[in-house]
Every structure is written in structure tokens, then in C-alpha cells.
Amino acid sequence: DFGLMTYDPAFLNTSSCRSAITYIDGDAGILRYRGYPIEELAEKCSFLEVSWLLLNGELPNPNELSEWTGLIKRHTMLHETTKKFLEGYRYDAHPMGMLISTIAALSTVYPEAKNVFDADNRKLQIARLIAKMPTICAYCYRHHFGLPYVYPDNDLNFTENFMNMMWKMFEPKYLANPILSRALDILFILHADHEQNCSTNTMRCVGSAQGDPYVGCSAAAAALYGPLHGGANEEVLKMLDQIGSKDRVAGFIHQVKEGGGKLMGFGHRVYKNYDPRARIIKWAAEQVFTVTGYNKKIEIALELERIALEDDYFVKRKLYPNVDFYSGIIYEAMGFRPDLFTVLFAIPRVVGWLAQWQEMLLDPEQKIARPRQIYTGHGERHVVPMADRH
Ligand code: SDX
């Protein structure tokens, strides 16, 4: 029980922290949000239920869920000036670059967000960010094609509304398909939080200076963009395209073992066992393929996993598929372009960033992040006049 763990308060102003939100046992492959196993939450809950759990510590009762859903729905629209901001981008701007800057721009639309210790104001800003992430993503996608934006439709649930804003009048084949919208809801649950990962740690660090949550989430999204973190799901698809067919997997793995790069979607800083999220995503892929048709890339991915899990190089390094290994295959099958995959990671992860930020903000012993260093530079020395420098 970590509650009994003793620690030096100075520990809290480094890049490490204490938290009661998410528990991971990397050796056993266990992931729990507020004590609930991720497998149960993915099977029995909706993403908005889980977002309430992460933010408030308990699953919502019917009234709480109804009020929370209503609050989210009230804030799915983007201020019209934000749409003009998006229109300033080139048509081929990467959606993550657009997302990162648009989230930061929202801090200028809601200047009251800097009152971070006002609980009602904080709840409103948190709801705004969760509600607007899908809208920003859909607008970035339609901006790329020069299509008119589709306004949020609050008669639809969270993922149906997102898919409607993405594809209405453009890619109608997957609109409001209950199997696909539920699969996306499950993917959002799996990506919602993950303890002190790179982007969440960034949110805590920036948030410890007591700025508003928009600039904190913008910084966290910037961290997520990296190919070693949230950008990996887009890199997995590039890797599978590069391999090209099932019979070329063994040759590709040989190249990796010879030092030719990394298996994208494999390995993890914490999991030294199968990422429990990858197992659930594999199941979700089968559901999605019943609607979209079988995706050949899954055959390459399954063959890559089969060979790697039997290969001593990966076994002794405890490298297993992580959350990114199968998610991109599902997203592509559902019609999402690869350059949107990391945005699809950010949409749910904003909940984890905000839950961890709020927990840090309300921790009376948390100070501004100030990691220490091991100095490896010169001892004291003195300036030599320019004329004497060679
Ligand atoms: C996410 O932190 C989180 O929680 C992140 C995340 C979340 O939900 O927020 O789970 C999401 O970011 C998942 C990770 C997505 N990234 C990738 O899939 C990119 C490919 N994987 C890696 O680059 C790598 O595995 C990391 C970055 C994830 C972890 O890197 P580490 O900590 O250096 O891995 P390690 O210490 O376990 O490595 C041990 C050995 C090293 O080789 P040796 O020096 O011992 O010879 O394994 C090698 C590594 O070079 N290795 C890999 C590898 N990952 C590590 N070799 C080939 N392919 C890989 N994918």
C-alpha cells in the first residue's frame, strides 16, 4: 500500500512523484486505473465514465454521468476565431503540429483558465479540453482536404460525434457504425492514462509552475508527438508498409537485430511483459475487421509478433508488443490517415494529463518541478582575452 510509503519531500520536486491514479506492474503486465483492472474498464465502461473515474477517483453514478456527459456536450464547439486560426495552416500541415498550437491558442480564448485553484473553473476548463479535442482533430482532417467543417452533433455519443465531424458528406461508409464507435471508445479508454509517461510527466512539470491547463496540455502533446512515444503508432504502419509482406518479416527482423533500427510498437520503459492494452487492442481489431474487412497488415504484424516472441534477441531484452503495435492497424482500417494516429492518442490522453495535473496541483507538498543534475563539466576557469585565443 503506497499510502504507507515513506519518502523525502524533496523527492516531490524532482521529475518523480507520488500518485493514486494509475498503477502499473511492468513485470506482471498489470494496468489499473484507480484500482480497476484495465480489462474490466474496457469491457464494462464508456470512455466518459472512465474519464470521470480518472479525474474524481470513483466511477460516476447515473446522475454524475448524465451531468458530466451534458457538460462535455455543451463544450464540443470551437470558438469561431479558432477556426480562422486553423485556416492559417498549409493544407499539408501535420495534424499534431496543428493540435499542439491550437490547444495553446485556447488559453487565449479562456484567460480565466489561469485561476487553477478555483475548483468550478478548473472543472469547466477540463471539460472544455476533453470536449474540444475531437473537434480540433476533425477540423484538422477536413482542412487538409479543403472540406467544410462539420459542427458537433450533440445527439450523438462521444465517438459517434467525432466520426460524424470527421467523415460526414465525405467518407460516409463508417458513419455511426456501433461496432466501430464502440471499438474507438475502447481504444480511448486504453489510451486515457499511463502513470508517469513522457507526456504526462511533461504536463506535471509545466503544470507545477501553475500555468493554465491549456499550455500544459500543449506541452504534453508536444512530448507525445515524438516517434519514441505517441508517434510510434504512425511509425508502426510505416514499418509494416516497408516490410510489405508476411514472407519478408524474418528478413526485416534480422536487419533490426543487426543494428538496423527498432521494431516500432515493441518494447516499453516499464512493461517487461506483454502490454495488457495490446492484448485488448488485438481483440478490438477482430471486431473492427468484421465491418471493414480483413486488413492484410494484421497478418504481417501477427507474423512479426510470432517470430519476435520466439527470438532470443527480443526475449532476453524483454521486448513485447506495446499499445502502439496494433492500434495503427485498427485506425487505418477505420479510415483514419496515419498522420492522425498520434492525434487519436492525444484525444483520450488529455484526460490522463488533466487528472495527473489536478492531482499534482492539489498536493500540498508538491513544489515547482526542479530536477537536480550530476555536473560533468569544467571546474572554475577564467576568460582569456580574444587576442590570446587561438
Ligand atoms: C508509448 O511510458 C509510457 O507509458 C509510454 C506509453 C504510454 O501509454 O504513455 O506506453 C506509450 O510510448 C509506448 C512506446 C512506443 N514506442 C515505440 O514503440 C518505439 C519503439 N520502442 C522503443 O524505442 C523503446 O522500446 C522504448 C523507447 C519504448 C523504450 O526504450 P528503452 O527504455 O531504451 O528500452 P529498454 O531499456 O527496455 O531497451 C533494452 C534493450 C536496448 O538494447 P541493448 O542496449 O540492451 O542492446 O532493448 C533495445 C534497446 O536498444 N530495444 C529495442 C526496442 N526497444 C528497446 N530493440 C529493438 N526494437 C525495439 N523496439
Automatic annotation (TrEMBL):
Coiled coil: none annotated. One of its GO terms (cellular component) is cytoplasm. It catalyses: oxaloacetate + acetyl-CoA + H2O = citrate + CoA + H(+). The keyword Cell division does not apply. One of its GO terms (molecular function) is citrate synthase activity. The active site is at 268, 324. One of its GO terms (biological process) is tricarboxylic acid cycle. Pathway: Carbohydrate metabolism; tricarboxylic acid cycle; isocitrate from oxaloacetate: step 1/2. Keywords: Acyltransferase, Transferase, Tricarboxylic acid cycle. InterPro entries: Citrate_synth-like_lrg_a-sub, Citrate_synth-like_sm_a-sub, Citrate_synthase, Citrate_synthase_AS, Citrate_synthase_bac-typ, Citrate_synthase_sf, Citrate_synthase_typ-I. NCBIfam families: cit_synth_I (TIGR01798), PRK05614.1 (NF004126). Belongs to the citrate synthase family. This is Citrate synthase. The lineage of its organism: Bacteria, Pseudomonadati, Acidobacteriota, Terriglobia, Bryobacterales.
